[in-house]
Amino acid sequence: MAHLVVSTGSIVTGVALLGVIVPRFKKVFERHRILERLAQQDEFEQREYVAATPECPRPDRWRMVDPQTCEVEILEFLRSLVTTVKPQLIVETGTFIGHSAIKMAEGLKANGFGRIITIEFDRAAFAKAKERIDASGLAEWIEYRKESSLEAKIEGTIDLFFSDSQLLTREQELRHFLPQISPCGLILVHDASSEIQKVREAMLQMEQEGLISTVLLSTPRGLAIAQKKEGRK
Ligand SMILES: C[S@@+](CC[C@H](N)C(=O)[O-])C[C@H]1O[C@@H](n2cnc3c(N)ncnc32)[C@H](O)[C@@H]1O
After folding, report:
1. Which DSSP helix (H) or strand (E) runs through 24?
2. Which of 118, 120, 152, 211 fits a disulfide with 92 by CB distance 3.0 to 4.6 angstroms?
3. Nearest-atom index, ligand 1, CA of 99
4. Which mutation among 34, 48, 50, 68 tests ligand 1's pocket best, with the greatest number of atoms within 8 A of CB?
Protein backbone atom coordinates (compact mmCIF):
# COMPACT_ATOMS: atom_id res chain seq x y z
CA MET A 1 0.00 0.00 0.00
CA ALA A 2 2.83 2.37 1.02
CA HIS A 3 4.53 1.46 -2.25
CA LEU A 4 1.34 2.37 -4.13
CA VAL A 5 1.14 5.77 -2.34
CA VAL A 6 4.77 6.56 -3.26
CA SER A 7 4.12 5.58 -6.87
CA THR A 8 1.02 7.75 -7.09
CA GLY A 9 2.98 10.63 -5.56
CA SER A 10 5.74 10.16 -8.13
CA ILE A 11 3.23 10.19 -10.95
CA VAL A 12 1.66 13.42 -9.69
CA THR A 13 5.12 15.02 -9.37
CA GLY A 14 6.06 13.78 -12.84
CA VAL A 15 2.90 15.21 -14.40
CA ALA A 16 3.44 18.55 -12.61
CA LEU A 17 7.04 18.67 -13.83
CA LEU A 18 5.94 17.94 -17.38
CA GLY A 19 3.49 20.83 -17.09
CA VAL A 20 6.46 23.15 -16.45
CA ILE A 21 9.02 21.58 -18.79
CA VAL A 22 6.90 20.97 -21.91
CA PRO A 23 5.71 24.62 -22.37
CA ARG A 24 9.29 25.80 -21.78
CA PHE A 25 10.65 23.52 -24.51
CA LYS A 26 7.84 24.54 -26.85
CA LYS A 27 8.88 28.19 -26.43
CA VAL A 28 12.57 27.39 -27.05
CA PHE A 29 11.61 25.42 -30.15
CA GLU A 30 9.38 28.27 -31.36
CA ARG A 31 12.18 30.82 -30.87
CA HIS A 32 14.67 28.77 -32.83
CA ARG A 33 12.17 28.06 -35.60
CA ILE A 34 11.62 31.83 -35.99
CA LEU A 35 15.39 32.43 -36.10
CA GLU A 36 15.82 29.75 -38.77
CA ARG A 37 13.02 31.25 -40.84
CA LEU A 38 14.59 34.71 -40.51
CA ALA A 39 17.83 33.35 -41.96
CA GLN A 40 15.93 32.32 -45.09
CA GLN A 41 13.36 35.05 -45.65
CA ASP A 42 12.51 38.62 -44.66
CA GLU A 43 10.04 39.33 -41.90
CA PHE A 44 6.46 40.12 -42.80
CA GLU A 45 3.43 41.24 -40.83
CA GLN A 46 0.56 38.85 -40.30
CA ARG A 47 -2.62 38.73 -38.28
CA GLU A 48 -2.40 37.65 -34.67
CA TYR A 49 -3.48 34.05 -34.29
CA VAL A 50 -3.50 33.46 -30.53
CA ALA A 51 -6.78 32.14 -29.15
CA ALA A 52 -9.58 34.63 -28.52
CA THR A 53 -10.18 35.49 -24.87
CA PRO A 54 -13.23 36.99 -23.15
CA GLU A 55 -11.37 40.31 -22.91
CA CYS A 56 -10.02 40.17 -26.48
CA PRO A 57 -12.52 38.26 -28.66
CA ARG A 58 -11.00 39.39 -32.01
CA PRO A 59 -7.21 38.89 -31.81
CA ASP A 60 -7.11 38.87 -35.62
CA ARG A 61 -7.60 42.66 -35.53
CA TRP A 62 -4.04 42.99 -34.24
CA ARG A 63 -0.82 42.38 -36.19
CA MET A 64 2.43 40.63 -35.40
CA VAL A 65 5.73 39.80 -37.06
CA ASP A 66 6.12 36.54 -35.14
CA PRO A 67 4.55 34.95 -32.06
CA GLN A 68 7.51 35.82 -29.79
CA THR A 69 7.78 39.53 -30.60
CA CYS A 70 5.10 41.78 -29.08
CA GLU A 71 2.07 42.64 -31.16
CA VAL A 72 2.89 45.43 -33.66
CA GLU A 73 0.42 47.70 -31.85
CA ILE A 74 2.24 47.10 -28.54
CA LEU A 75 5.54 47.99 -30.21
CA GLU A 76 4.02 51.28 -31.38
CA PHE A 77 2.57 51.84 -27.91
CA LEU A 78 5.98 51.29 -26.29
CA ARG A 79 7.51 53.96 -28.49
CA SER A 80 4.72 56.43 -27.64
CA LEU A 81 4.97 55.63 -23.95
CA VAL A 82 8.68 56.46 -24.00
CA THR A 83 8.07 59.83 -25.66
CA THR A 84 5.18 60.45 -23.24
CA VAL A 85 6.81 59.67 -19.87
CA LYS A 86 10.43 60.41 -20.90
CA PRO A 87 12.28 57.80 -18.84
CA GLN A 88 15.95 58.19 -18.02
CA LEU A 89 16.47 54.45 -17.58
CA ILE A 90 14.49 51.62 -19.17
CA VAL A 91 15.13 47.97 -18.35
CA GLU A 92 13.74 45.26 -20.61
CA THR A 93 13.92 41.56 -19.86
CA GLY A 94 13.65 39.35 -22.95
CA THR A 95 15.24 41.04 -25.98
CA PHE A 96 14.56 38.19 -28.42
CA ILE A 97 15.53 39.73 -31.81
CA GLY A 98 15.33 43.31 -30.59
CA HIS A 99 12.04 44.69 -31.91
CA SER A 100 10.75 46.14 -28.65
CA ALA A 101 14.18 47.43 -27.60
CA ILE A 102 14.59 49.19 -30.95
CA LYS A 103 11.09 50.74 -30.73
CA MET A 104 11.77 52.07 -27.24
CA ALA A 105 15.15 53.37 -28.42
CA GLU A 106 13.36 55.28 -31.19
CA GLY A 107 11.42 57.00 -28.39
CA LEU A 108 14.63 57.75 -26.48
CA LYS A 109 16.21 59.23 -29.58
CA ALA A 110 13.16 61.46 -30.11
CA ASN A 111 13.47 62.55 -26.45
CA GLY A 112 17.18 63.19 -26.87
CA PHE A 113 18.19 61.46 -23.62
CA GLY A 114 17.94 58.22 -21.65
CA ARG A 115 19.04 54.66 -22.27
CA ILE A 116 17.66 51.16 -22.36
CA ILE A 117 19.29 48.07 -20.92
CA THR A 118 17.89 44.98 -22.61
CA ILE A 119 18.63 41.50 -21.29
CA GLU A 120 18.58 38.19 -23.18
CA PHE A 121 19.96 34.82 -22.10
CA ASP A 122 19.52 32.79 -25.29
CA ARG A 123 22.76 32.78 -27.30
CA ALA A 124 21.18 32.63 -30.77
CA ALA A 125 18.50 35.24 -30.02
CA PHE A 126 21.11 37.53 -28.45
CA ALA A 127 23.36 37.27 -31.54
CA LYS A 128 20.48 38.17 -33.85
CA ALA A 129 19.36 41.04 -31.61
CA LYS A 130 22.91 42.40 -31.49
CA GLU A 131 23.16 42.28 -35.29
CA ARG A 132 19.83 44.08 -35.70
CA ILE A 133 20.51 46.70 -33.02
CA ASP A 134 23.96 47.44 -34.46
CA ALA A 135 22.38 47.90 -37.90
CA SER A 136 19.48 50.02 -36.60
CA GLY A 137 21.42 53.23 -36.09
CA LEU A 138 20.09 53.28 -32.51
CA ALA A 139 22.86 51.34 -30.79
CA GLU A 140 24.01 54.38 -28.81
CA TRP A 141 20.71 54.29 -26.88
CA ILE A 142 20.77 50.56 -26.17
CA GLU A 143 22.94 48.49 -23.86
CA TYR A 144 22.40 44.83 -24.69
CA ARG A 145 23.39 42.18 -22.22
CA LYS A 146 23.61 38.43 -22.60
CA GLU A 147 22.64 37.15 -19.18
CA SER A 148 19.70 35.98 -17.13
CA SER A 149 17.38 38.71 -15.89
CA LEU A 150 17.48 37.11 -12.46
CA GLU A 151 21.23 37.63 -12.23
CA ALA A 152 21.35 41.10 -13.78
CA LYS A 153 22.79 43.89 -11.67
CA ILE A 154 21.49 47.29 -12.67
CA GLU A 155 22.88 50.56 -11.36
CA GLY A 156 20.43 53.34 -10.55
CA THR A 157 16.70 53.87 -10.53
CA ILE A 158 14.53 52.27 -13.20
CA ASP A 159 11.87 54.58 -14.67
CA LEU A 160 10.32 52.06 -17.04
CA PHE A 161 10.53 48.32 -16.50
CA PHE A 162 9.34 46.08 -19.33
CA SER A 163 9.14 42.40 -18.46
CA ASP A 164 8.89 40.13 -21.50
CA SER A 165 11.04 37.10 -20.66
CA GLN A 166 10.05 33.54 -19.81
CA LEU A 167 6.49 33.37 -18.48
CA LEU A 168 7.40 31.49 -15.32
CA THR A 169 10.12 33.93 -14.26
CA ARG A 170 8.15 37.17 -14.72
CA GLU A 171 6.93 37.39 -11.14
CA GLN A 172 10.34 36.48 -9.75
CA GLU A 173 12.11 39.09 -11.86
CA LEU A 174 9.55 41.78 -11.05
CA ARG A 175 10.06 41.12 -7.34
CA HIS A 176 13.83 41.15 -7.96
CA PHE A 177 13.78 44.59 -9.64
CA LEU A 178 10.91 46.16 -7.66
CA PRO A 179 13.10 47.93 -5.05
CA GLN A 180 14.94 49.68 -7.89
CA ILE A 181 11.86 50.81 -9.78
CA SER A 182 10.98 54.46 -9.22
CA PRO A 183 7.74 54.96 -7.22
CA CYS A 184 6.60 57.21 -10.08
CA GLY A 185 7.90 54.82 -12.71
CA LEU A 186 5.96 52.38 -14.85
CA ILE A 187 5.98 48.60 -14.84
CA LEU A 188 4.88 46.83 -18.00
CA VAL A 189 4.45 43.09 -18.11
CA HIS A 190 3.55 41.42 -21.39
CA ASP A 191 1.49 38.21 -21.79
CA ALA A 192 -0.98 39.10 -19.06
CA SER A 193 -4.04 37.75 -20.88
CA SER A 194 -6.56 35.49 -19.17
CA GLU A 195 -5.51 32.70 -21.56
CA ILE A 196 -1.93 32.72 -20.26
CA GLN A 197 -3.06 33.26 -16.63
CA LYS A 198 0.32 32.84 -14.94
CA VAL A 199 1.39 36.46 -15.47
CA ARG A 200 -2.08 37.89 -14.85
CA GLU A 201 -2.40 35.98 -11.59
CA ALA A 202 1.05 37.16 -10.46
CA MET A 203 0.15 40.80 -11.11
CA LEU A 204 -3.14 40.49 -9.25
CA GLN A 205 -1.39 38.69 -6.39
CA MET A 206 1.20 41.47 -6.07
CA GLU A 207 -1.62 44.00 -6.14
CA GLN A 208 -3.34 42.12 -3.30
CA GLU A 209 -0.10 42.23 -1.35
CA GLY A 210 -0.22 46.03 -1.64
CA LEU A 211 2.97 46.22 -3.71
CA ILE A 212 1.58 47.50 -7.00
CA SER A 213 -1.54 48.86 -8.57
CA THR A 214 -2.25 47.39 -11.99
CA VAL A 215 -4.37 47.86 -15.10
CA LEU A 216 -4.83 45.05 -17.61
CA LEU A 217 -4.90 46.06 -21.28
CA SER A 218 -7.03 43.74 -23.41
CA THR A 219 -4.73 42.94 -26.29
CA PRO A 220 -4.34 39.46 -27.83
CA ARG A 221 -1.52 38.46 -25.47
CA GLY A 222 -2.37 41.03 -22.80
CA LEU A 223 -0.32 43.82 -21.30
CA ALA A 224 -0.32 44.72 -17.61
CA ILE A 225 0.65 48.27 -16.74
CA ALA A 226 1.42 48.86 -13.10
CA GLN A 227 2.92 51.31 -10.67
CA LYS A 228 4.28 50.80 -7.21
CA LYS A 229 1.64 51.52 -4.57
CA GLU A 230 3.99 53.94 -2.85
CA GLY A 231 3.92 56.13 -5.97
CA ARG A 232 0.14 56.59 -5.82
CA LYS A 233 -0.06 59.43 -3.35
C1 LIG B 1 8.76 36.99 -25.78
S2 LIG B 1 10.44 37.06 -26.21
C3 LIG B 1 10.81 38.78 -26.09
C4 LIG B 1 10.24 39.60 -27.22
C5 LIG B 1 10.73 41.02 -27.28
N6 LIG B 1 10.54 41.71 -26.02
C7 LIG B 1 10.02 41.79 -28.36
O8 LIG B 1 8.81 42.04 -28.22
O9 LIG B 1 10.67 42.16 -29.36
C10 LIG B 1 11.16 36.41 -24.75
C11 LIG B 1 12.69 36.35 -24.76
O12 LIG B 1 13.11 36.30 -23.40
C13 LIG B 1 14.25 35.48 -23.30
N14 LIG B 1 14.31 35.08 -21.89
C15 LIG B 1 13.47 34.25 -21.23
N16 LIG B 1 13.78 34.20 -19.92
C17 LIG B 1 14.84 35.03 -19.74
C18 LIG B 1 15.59 35.42 -18.61
N19 LIG B 1 15.30 34.95 -17.39
N20 LIG B 1 16.61 36.29 -18.78
C21 LIG B 1 16.90 36.77 -20.01
N22 LIG B 1 16.21 36.44 -21.13
C23 LIG B 1 15.18 35.59 -20.99
C24 LIG B 1 13.98 34.36 -24.29
O25 LIG B 1 15.18 33.73 -24.68
C26 LIG B 1 13.27 35.12 -25.42
O27 LIG B 1 14.17 35.50 -26.43
Report:
1. helix 2-40
2. 118
3. 9
4. 68
